[in-house]
Amino acid sequence: MYRYDEFDHKLVADRVEQFRGQVARRMDGSLSEDAFKPLRLMNGVYLQLHAYMLRVAIPYGTLSSKQMRMLAHIARKYDRGYGHFTTRQNIQYNWPALKDIPDLLDELAGVEMHAIQTSGNCIRNVTSDQYAGAIDGEVEDPRIISEIIRQWSTFHPEFSYLPRKFKIAVTGHENDRAAIKLHDIGIVIAQNQAGETGYEVHVGGGQGRTPFIAKKLADFVPAAQLLAYLEAVMRVYNMLGRRDNSYKARIKILVHETGEEEMRRLVEAEFAKIDASQMLSLPQAELERIAAYFAPPAFAELPATSDKFEAARAEDAAFAHWVKTNVVAHKQPGYAIVNISLKPIGGVPGDASDTQIDCVADIAEQYSFDELRVTHEQNLTLPHVRLDDVKAVYDALAAHDLATPNLGLISDAIACPGLDYCNLANARSIPLAQDISTRFADLDRQYDIGELKVKISGCINACGHHHVGHIGILGVDKKGTEFYQISLGGAADETASLGDITGRAFTEDTIVDAVEILVETYLDQRQTGERFIDTYRRVGMAPFKERLYAE
Amino acid sequence: MAQHSAKGAQFQAVTGNRLVDGEVVYFTASGAWAEAFDAAAIAEGGEAADALLAQASPADIEAHVLDPYLFEVIALDDGSYLPASVRETIRAKGPTIRPDLGKQAAQESA
Amino acid sequence: MPSDYQLVKDRAVCADDWVYLEDDAALGDAPSIISLDRLRAENEALKARNAPLGVVLRADNQGKQQMGEDVHELAPYLDMVQLVAIEFPVYRNGRGYSNARILREQLGFTGELRATGEVLHDQWQFMERCGFSAFELAPHISLEEFTAALGELSDAYQPAADSQRGALWRRHGL
């Protein structure tokens, strides 16, 4: 994974000092709250219901054990002993004191971490595929170009006061695990006829109040020109994006109101000018330097199957069950990708205690080439585990309640923090995720239901990604009471679609029953091999709506 | 975000977040800011509420407390008050899914 | 109209030789900053002007969608002006950064590029990187504070309108 050089270290250190100065000026009154707010946001500091919240960046979701241990330490020293992994592959702490945050950031800098641009109207964390470098069929490890984009976008003097936030995601595989079509800029790594690598650029995706699927503006931008192309997109947005209404300020609105053709023309005109200067032409040497950090680890030459692994599966039914759901084939013979569910039955989705974080750090160091990933579905991934070691990993995880065999199943729901934590929320989302999880606790039943992505948001900002849930749930407030609106048929992958609202919202008391009715309807309707989303796409809303509102 | 007070709310109190650590605080009758909802000054009627908010928001308030605002409370038979909204109930206690965190934890052990 | 401020130009405090003129005010020989509308409307007459001329690009907060004036509209008249002022109506409105870079890097403007409006501490360094050479600051700001702010980030990843090449290139001696 990427290692800071002197430039990176110095810039992060400068930023910590800069923020320390800003906090001091805020405390002594020379900086008003109004002027301080965008600055603290650009350093990932929100004010939430109970306290400040700090969002620490985990670039494209990749972490070392040393970094993971620091996250556990931060949780203990500055917070309440836990952290929350987010839908953008970051981690959030819910209780830091403002006065402590400069010191906290100092400690993070010591392990090459920061909270830069994790909030505010600037370019945010570049997210990517949690299976990068491990899965078969990858065109190129998407983290290479993600790291280049991260650097180019950090402290960008022109794009730090955009009309609104800006999110970029990259995938290097035909199965899109990074939800690129739901991002302001989504990049797909492609190969042309000559076998050269280039980048497909999609623009204007997003969720929130007005969800959109991104439009493909460019088919194939060569690596050397990608930064110039991205700069062109950003400049068009910065110049033409609306600033009169924060609900209409994202680039998705600009693309929608301008039209795809005209948007492409504007971007290409600007790109031509920027490209002509050659100032952003990416040096091949830099591309190679960064690519070297993402070279495959020193895999051992192993047979494709492992007797030890097979024996363990035969002996231990629980282990076998967990393997079926959570373990994915690796491109390297003898290895596996191991997914860690942070959705224990009835637990808080995406939360991990300091002990759990330390446990995962130890496992990653010992069994996964000292590397782990955060997924945008609020889980963790160990990318490179020997099949021989999978049972030992499972045992270590199980000892800390980290071996729930539910990846992609109904209890593996995404839930935003919601009204339990968030200043913007209208309704609680976590208790709903817990109730659904508990209702469907029977793992055999879950397995029979199969892949079913439930996504829950506590407000229209859609941080729970409800628009792209197979079952999406949006919490709303009606005269002080929490209600839950259901949508069906959303998907975040390469088949990206936005969910359809079923109709009338449900109460806290009836929403879990409603989910059960939807599941029953699916089970009645499904044909062999169909997941929930497949059945919905085949039969449509009618059968579901009919049974939902049958009274 | 839900409105903090319904139109014509009878009883209101003032809350904000402390600058230094973000802790939820309530404006008290003595003019200080307290961490417990029980200590909050209650204003009856719109005029009294506006006066309370003005008292709670001197020119230098942002040096201590962020964005003080009025929120509705309801009166109970025993003379005590409770926040009217789910949001303010949660702010007064802590996250509902972690009874060991927030003000509710301190209240438990008190 | 910009209100009470001190001018810092080329990193030094200096008296402001320029005056901002309303559209209906008579244009004398004093170095004058006029609106883009006026420059456009009177450009023929102004070609004969022997005195310094400046233009201010306004951000129109009242207009639909707050588009503000676009630097491309200034292009036909650029060789007539020695000063361009770009307004930041609120510090959060960052269009001016793009306008500045286009002016410097694409339109080749080499005169005084001045930031006016809400021009606060934490924007100065990025403004300078985008090509601003003059800043209308609140009177209480010291030159020490201003100069220190320009160096808060000691390096840069990416090029802009200043002389910084950017780490992605400098690492390889480019």
**Rg of chain A from C-alpha positions?**
23 Å
The N- to C-terminal Cα distance of chain A equals: 56 Å
The parts of chain A where pLDDT drops under 50 for at least 5 residues are: none
Helix segment tally of chain A = 18
Structural class of chain B: alpha+beta
Report Rg of chain B.
Answer: 14 Å
The mean pLDDT of chain A is: 97
What does this molecule look like?
The complex is a heterotrimer of chains A (551), B (110) and C (174). Chain A has 551 residues and is α+β, with helices and mostly antiparallel strands. Chain A has four domains: 6-109, Alpha-Beta Complex (Sulfite Reductase Hemoprotein, domain 2), CATH 3.90.480; 142-291, Sulfite Reductase Hemoprotein, domain 1 (2-Layer Sandwich), CATH 3.30.413; 307-398, Sulfite Reductase Hemoprotein, domain 2; 414-548, 2-Layer Sandwich (Sulfite Reductase Hemoprotein, domain 1), CATH 3.30.413. Helices cover 38% and strands 17% of the residues of chain A. In chain A, strands 15, 16, 17, 18, 19 and 20 form a six-stranded mixed sheet that branches. A five-stranded antiparallel sheet of chain A has the order 1-2-5-4-12. In chain A, strand 7 (185-191) and strand 8 (197-203) form a beta hairpin. In chain A, helix 1 runs antiparallel to helix 4 (101-109) and helix 3 runs antiparallel to helix 4. Chain A starts with 5 loop residues before the first helix and ends with a helix. In chain A, 58% of the residues are buried. The model of chain A has no long low-confidence stretch (mean pLDDT 97). Chain B has helices at residues 46-56, 86-93, 103-109; strands spanning 11-18, 24-27, 33-34, 43-44, 65-75, 81-83. Chain B is 24% helix and 27% strand. Chain B has one domain. By secondary structure, chain C is an alpha/beta fold. Chain C contains six helices and eight strands. Chain C has an eight-stranded mixed sheet. Chain C has a single domain, classed as TIM Barrel (Alpha-Beta Barrel). Chain C has helices spanning 36-41, 43-46, 95-106, 124-129, 143-150, 167-170, and strands at 6-9, 12-14, 19-20, 32-35, 53-57, 83-88, 112-117, 134-137. In chain C, 23% of the residues lie in helices and 20% in strands. The model of chain C has no long low-confidence stretch (mean pLDDT 92). The A-C interface holds A 5, 7-8, 10-11, 14-15, 17-18, 21-22, 25, 31, 35, 38-39, 121, 148, 151-152, 154-162, 227, 235, 238-240, 242-244, 273, 277, 279-280, 282-283, 285-286, 289 and C 64-67, 70, 91-95, 97-99, 101-102, 105-106, 120-123, 125-127, 129-130, 152-160, 167-172, 174.
